[in-house]
């Protein structure tokens, strides 16, 4: 492996690693009995078993949940169209891992492959003691549990890396060449239980990791700390400071930690069909954290969306950050990208401040806020766009 060039260093590995597509998935990861399936059921309105014993979940289950957005709600209230489509986050419920999973303990190899198939992780951490809820290690120690999961993921990546090196070496030798890839890349980090995403890599190295290895520890992670309802309401727990210290010492940011409570969210869920009762409950307590969990997961995957708005439909179109106008148009239909002419754009903030309850674009044109953008325009989150395109009929 040639030496790294400082000019090529990538500072934002979260965006650089992973697959480029719009239907990326967040997967729930953690030890058994930490609240993964309960969280999945509440987020997605499903009823998967969430029993008090290890490996209640075996096969992964996928579902989606709407991404909450006041901007979308505003546009829907303004137009009141017959069709309304929010953005959605894809979520996968994955069974719990235990120590030794990389060696097959607790069906670990299968579960680790399920993690390999998603694009980001909700790492659920149990931060409450309850003798009625089993713990695989018989005691509550969130830092130990964090170390256990990270160690298993790193060891699985070491296994993936070793097999990749062997396969690549065989291909090169079969072609009569000499294998040059450093077999230690990037094992020096993984052997210390350090995720690959926390390293500094050149663009060429990231491309190699993405194409050849698909390592688990490249995936962006949000840490969801499951508290008792009492601790959640007072936002205080003896477990939170050591968890925060561990996350920040292992490449995470404070915003990557979201304290929540399954106990609290289940109580809120039972009142979902009683809006008056729910409103009264929220006056005396904290709000649900599900909006933050969903929006943080969506953002962590490097996703955003633009709006198309009109009398017939309000719709969010999911794209990756940095997407150019023609590719954003292609999300609607391939012909929109092939025959792209221009994008007529109004920023959402401008629309809301100037529309005054109306739907006409005239006020925006009058003050220069209704823009015509070409093929090099980078679509911004929340843009309201109308595409002009032309595709010649097939002969």
TrEMBL record:
The keyword Amino-acid biosynthesis does not apply. Residues 302-389 form the TGS domain. One of its GO terms (molecular function) is GTP binding. Coiled coil: none annotated. GO terms for cellular component: cytoplasm. The keyword tRNA processing does not apply. Keywords: ATP-binding, Nucleotide-binding. Residues 24-280 form the OBG-type G domain. It comes from the Eukaryota. InterPro entries: ATPase_YchF/OLA1, Beta-grasp_dom_sf, G_OBG, GTP-bd, P-loop_NTPase, TGS, TGS-like, TGS-like_dom_sf. PROSITE patterns: G_OBG (PS51710), TGS (PS51880). This is Obg-like ATPase homolog. It comes from Mollisia scopiformis (Conifer needle endophyte fungus). The lineage of its organism: Eukaryota, Fungi, Dikarya, Ascomycota, Pezizomycotina.
């Amino acid at each position: 492996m040639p030496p790294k060039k400082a000019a090529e260093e990538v500072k934002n590995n979260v965006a650089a690693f992973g697959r480029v597509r719009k239907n990326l998935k967040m997967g729930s990861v953690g030890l058994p009995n930490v609240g993964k399936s309960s969280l999945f059921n509440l987020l997605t309105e499903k009823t998967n078993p969430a029993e008090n014993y290890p490996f209640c979940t075996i096969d992964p289950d996928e579902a989606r949940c709407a991404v909450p957005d006041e901007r979308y709600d505003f546009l829907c209230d303004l137009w009141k169209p017959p069709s309304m489509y929010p953005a959605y986050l894809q979520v996968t419920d994955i069974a719990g891992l235990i120590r030794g999973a990389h060696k097959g303990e607790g069906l670990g190899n299968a579960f680790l492959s399920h993690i390999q198939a998603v694009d980001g992780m909700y790492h659920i951490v149990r931060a409450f003691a309850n003798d009625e809820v089993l713990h695989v290690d018989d005691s509550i120690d969130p830092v130990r549990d964090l170390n256990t999961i990270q160690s298993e993921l790193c060891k699985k990546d070491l296994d993936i890396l070793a097999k990749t090196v062997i396969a690549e070496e065989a291909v090169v030798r079969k072609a009569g060449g000499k294998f040059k890839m450093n077999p230690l890349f990037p094992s020096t980090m993984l052997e210390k239980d350090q995720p690959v995403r926390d390293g500094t890599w050149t663009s060429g190295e990231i491309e190699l990791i993405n194409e050849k290895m698909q390592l688990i520890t490249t995936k962006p992670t949000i840490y969801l700390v499951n508290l008792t309802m009492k601790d959640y309401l007072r936002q205080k727990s003896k477990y939170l400071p050591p968890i925060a210290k561990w996350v920040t010492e292992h490449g995470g940011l404070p915003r990557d930690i979201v304290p929540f409570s399954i106990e609290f969210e289940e109580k809120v869920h039972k009142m979902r069909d009683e809006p008056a009762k729910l409103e009264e409950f929220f006056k005396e307590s904290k709000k649900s954290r599900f909006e933050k969990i969903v929006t943080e997961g969506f953002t962590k995957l490097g996703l955003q969306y633009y709006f198309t708005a009109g009398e017939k439909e309000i719709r969010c179109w999911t794209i990756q950050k940095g997407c150019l106008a023609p590719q954003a148009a292609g999300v609607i239909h391939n012909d929109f990208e092939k025959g792209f002419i221009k994008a007529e754009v109004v920023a959402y903030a401008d629309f809301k401040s100037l529309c005054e309850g109306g739907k006409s674009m005239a006020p925006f044109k009058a003050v220069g806020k209704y823009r015509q953008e070409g093929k090099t325009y980078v679509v911004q989150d929340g843009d309201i766009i109308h595409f002009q395109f032309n595709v010649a009929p097939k002969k």
